[in-house]
Amino acid sequence: MNYWGETMLDRVAALGRTTLDTIAGAGAAFFMLMRALIGKPNLRKSWPLLMQQMYSVGVLSLLIIVVSGLFIGMVLGLQGYTILVDFGAEQSLGPMVALSLLRELGPVVTALLFAGRAGSALTAEIGLMKATEQLSSLEMMGVDPLRRVISPRFWAGFYSMPILAIVFSAVGIYGGYLVGVRWLGVDDGAFWSVMQSNVEWGQDIVNGIIKSLVFAFVVTWIALHKGYSCTPTSVGISRATTSTVVTASLAVLGLDFVLTALMFG
Amino acid sequence: MQTAQNSTSNQPQTHAEDEALVVIDNIDFAHGFGAHQVYRGLSMRIPKGKITAVMGPSGIGKTTLLRLIGAQLRPQQGTITFANENIHALGRSDLYELRKRMSMLFQSGALFTDMTVYDNIAFPIREHSDLPEEIIETIVKLKLEAVGLRGARHLMPAELSGGMARRAALARAIALDPELIMYDEPFAGQDPISMGVIVKLIKELNQSLGLTSIVVTHDVAEVMTIADYVYIIADKKVVGHGTPSQLEASDDPLVHQFLHGEADGPVPFHYAAASLEDELLGGNHAR
Question: Among A85, A263, B36, B222, which is least packed, fewest CB within 10 Å?
């Protein structure tokens, strides 16, 4: 076979290998999650583990969420005011800030920050446990690492992120209020009352929470799988951590479009 | 000496009179969908209540063997039985149940870094029993006393020396009073005093607790003093086995090379490659 023929065959083989690896990786991620979640729960043992992880994944993420939420809300307030005031519509600043946060920015930015702060930490922690044979030692002690390590971290991420998204949106709205009302002089009563009449519970708040739950599921799953399946070396853990942030962020942005189209399209 | 190579059956016969706790029967194992063959037709019997050493050159797959016995890996062919149970035929929950009867001391110790030494040893007891904390405390203190670390129970793993970490991991490994304990390179990276302590502990624990021990190592001198039976693995199979004295007397070139640490012999000094002349002069510039 000539050179071009061999090169073409190599490329086809590489494509096939990548496809097989991708399918095998997806299958492994699916089975990892199923084994971690399906089974008889032991509340006496799993509750303290869940609380510990809720602290580590959720409470320790509060600072970045609150600070980011405040600044994003303030920027929304400022940008919204400068646009709306040209049309004499600055009274609509309240709903603009609230809807932007509740429908989009709250769930999406929280998920992106969560992937960067908690997701990368989860991947690195589990990867390091793998590299130092702690996961293997659990198996050899007759303790299933999927139930003991993966499951509490998954549920902690799943429950924490929607709560963090609500905190993000609430702080963001307050940031918009500080800039719009306290600094730029939008009427206080109009800001809140127009917001109240324009924001709907089901359409805006519940849909935002549903988005956040979907993102929580995907980001935590990706973070845990990347850690659990990483090559147990320093380079392997580093790559897995980077891959968690990149993959989770892209998944969140892609899913956000799909969910927005389904909910509001 | 009789070796697996010249045995008429797959199973080594030399110590057939001892009751076997673990039987490895003609296994084949390869990593990466057959890309790297580790074992081909490997057979062993691990006698109950004895210390069995498994030795061989680095990278020969000794740790892989322990992972196969612990069913963390699955052979492509052949069977491994523990107490007459085919471990790879067990379901997930039965396998985890069976693993409570075996234990492994990892090369790194594998202590949980976010727990104190005390909590590390208490961990398997808390996971597998509903014992009150006072009884757990008594058991943990006894286990730590056995390895000489009762006074270090409040320390974190990061505060321990390498030898102490290995001993703490040993205390955790015996926490549930297993029938089988597998030691993965227990002497690696230890100073002479720590090494002497670990050799003594392996011997004493085996006798006092009635354990069956498998010691995977390439530290010939240390393990030959305590092993009841020795297997030497090379070239994907058992190349020699017997009591330490039988192996010392062996004239098998590979066994001789390994036991006496000769740089070249049946196990070549050079990794397989084209000849140096061909590479340097023959225009082959592959790196």
Answer: B36
